[in-house]
Amino acid sequence: MSAFTEPAFAWEPITPRGVAAFARASLERLLVVQAVVALLGAAAVVWLLSEGVFPTINAAIGELPEAGQIHSGKLDWREDSPVLLAEGRILAFSVDLEHGGALRSPADFQFEFGRDSIRVFSLFGETELAYPPGLVLAANQTDARPAWGAWAPDILGLAAIGVFFGLLAVWALLATVYFMPVWLVCLFSNRDLNFRASWKLASAALMPGALLLSLSLVLYGLGAFDIVQLCLAFGMHLVIGWIYLFVSPMFLYRVLPAEKKNPFTLTG
User: Are residues 201 and 252 part of one domain?
Assistant: First the structure.
């Protein structure tokens, strides 16, 4: 038997021992806990958008002129240029019709609207995107404010739904890739785990990283993390999943070779 005591009840996906418990738990319990973790991830994204991104967008709309529009691949701007519309820690919006480089914001992402294109500046470099010829977009308060007011709640809702179901789908896909290494670890360390139980453990092993990333998004929104630290947290959440894949099986009972079950059975 393992030097560790095998967990008897699956309820927390934070410790390797807690993750190991999901190998023996029902699929329904795993899905319930995954749903809770996915909800936390969705809540973190929605909070970051509503508190860290949307206020800057609202402020930028408040600085738009009474007349202006993007149409036929051109920005119709009749006010001063260059001008900084709004600036936050995460986002900044400016207008520089000639992209002369006169305005640079310390925000993590700056969107600079030019006459023919929009430039995005960030830690990752500079990207320029031409306005689509068929795009018609209000660049004035009269039209932009009600349009944004109507779309903002929908964007938050779509973000929440997308993150929630996206996480569940990604976890299922990755578990299908990762369950074989888990099963091999158990095989060579004399842990009795069939394919189905290995899939459940692999799926549960992805939740600690997701919790770390959710916390990192909140810290980023609060200003405790900068964009570099957030990127490091994103990389760490992947590494943590791999660590749990190989450490968690060590919390399962060892069995004698004669006691091993057929891995193709669906019990467990």
Answer: yes
Residues 217, 254, single domain; the answer is yes
- Confidence tier at 3 by pLDDT (50, 70, 90): very low
Residue 83 belongs to what domain range?
Answer: 65-139
**What's the rounded mean pLDDT across residues 229-253?**
94
C-beta of residue 108 within 8 angstroms of C-beta of residue 90: yes
Helical axes 207-222 vs 141-188, angle rounded to 10°: 150
CB 141 within 8 A of CB 61: yes
Whether residue 197 lies inside any domain: the answer is yes
CA 170 to CA 142: how far, in whole Å?
41
> In terms of domains, do 29 and 74 share one?
no
- Is the separation of the CB atoms in 107 and 55 below 8 Å? no
- Whether the pLDDT of residue 54 is over 50: the answer is yes
Does some domain include residue 266?
no
